[in-house]
Every structure is written in C-alpha cells, then in structure tokens.
Amino acid sequence: MSKNSIIIKEQKNIALVAHDNKKAELLQWVKDNIESLKKHNLFATGTTGKIISAETGLNITNFKSGPLGGDQQIGSKIVEGGLDVLIFFWDPLESQPHDPDIKALLRIASVYNIPNATNKSTADFLITSPYFTDEYIKTTDCFDNHFSREINL
Description:
Elements: E1 3-8, E2 13-18, H1 23-32, H2 34-37, E3 41-44, H3 46-56, E4 60-62, H4 70-79, E5 85-89, H5 99-111, E6 116-117, H6 120-127, E7 136-141
Parallel strand pairs: 2-3, 2-5, 3-4, 5-6
Antiparallel strand pairs: 1-7
Helix pairs in contact: 1-3, 4-5
C-alpha cells in the first residue's frame, strides 16, 4: 500500500474529549497546560468543551455531546483532515452507552495516524514533545484504491 505524507503545521487542531469521571482531570490538565494550548485551535465534545471554556476562557469549537454524536463528529473531522491531535481522557472502568462510537473514534485516530492521548501521562508526553509546537510530517496509508473493486454485473 502506498503512503501519503501530510504536513501538520505548527498551529495544531486539537480535539479534547473526556468521559464524565474524567472531566475534572482533563480540566486540570488544560489549566496546567493553558499557555501551550492557547496557541492552537481547540475542539471538543459538547459538555467537555463548555466546561473547559467556562473555566479557562479558551475559545473552543464544540461538537455535540459524545452520546449524541460528538465522538462521531470528531471522527469525521479526522477523516476530513481537520484534526491533528486527539486528547481523550476516557474511563476504561465505566461502561458507556456509546461504547461503539468511542471504539470507532479511537480506531479512526489510529487509521489516520493521529497522535492521541487517552490518559494524563500520555497527554503530558505528547504536549511536551517538540512536535507539539513544530511542523511535523506524518505518513498515512493511501486508501484511494483500497476499497475499489471492479464489479461485473
């Protein structure tokens, strides 16, 4: 399979997502890293974005709440090339009514080679990487012909 090279600019498009039991932890992480984050374009699922924006004053583009399709909206934005980083503090010990959407979002982030952090430690490593503020060239598989098949009728 061939590869595509994609330039991720210095100013990233970052999605912030957190399950209910992790919202306070993500909010604190954002507060701890506000100086770095305010240099980027921020997106979030509904409730998470409203909380972070209200508590920090950061400008955040909000999607729907996760259970109402927000996870799928973020996944769609990744597929379209509109998101560069996913910070998703998910709760692996709590069953979610939209678990299939969560798995689909994490899968699509991997398929499109999007850096993603699912906990604070990984988010700390990601935000302190020089690539977080520098241009980065990522490679992804080229799917243009992956699903095309000749159909004889």
